[in-house]
Amino acid sequence: MAFLALLGIVGFGPDPVDQPVQGEIAGVLFFLHTHGIPGWVNYAFLERAANVALFVPLGIVASLAFPKKRWWQVAAFGLMVSGCMELGQQLFLHNRFSSPVDLVTNTAGSVIGALVARSVGMKRPTR
Q: What CA–CA distance (Å, rounded) separates 65 from 30?
């Protein structure tokens, strides 16, 4: 339940979640770049990685809740949830913007979560 609340806050807050800390994130990235972290680890990369990480738990929970569903069905569920969030942002939140990249990264997170749950589930002994 707490995870759904987190998704709601992140997806439907009036402003992007990272807006208050964008300057700090940019400063950390500058520090990391001056200490050898490659330039492709930039703000866009972090945003996409955060989108993936946000949906990994959804894939895990959906896989555990519906163990007979295949991984691609869990991925379709993640795509549907992400699509609803992006549509809501497009229609109702003027300070937010929807993005096809968000759909892809969110769905990727659901896939990773589903595969993690399945791989852990396969290692458990059956009764």
A: 42
pLDDT tens digits, one per residue of 82-126: 999 999 999 988 888 889 999 999 999 999 999 999 998 766 555
Measured torsion, CA atoms of residues 74, 79, 81, 84, in degrees rounded to the nearest 10: -160
CA-to-CA distance for 54 and 13, rounded, in angstroms?
A: 15
User: What is this structure's pTM?
Assistant: 0.82
Angle between helices 71-92 and 2-12 (to 10 degrees): 40
Q: How many beta carbons lie within 10 A of that of residue 61, not counting itself? A: 17
How far from 54 is each of 6, 15, 31, 106, 107, CA to CA, in Å?
Answer: 9, 17, 25, 7, 10
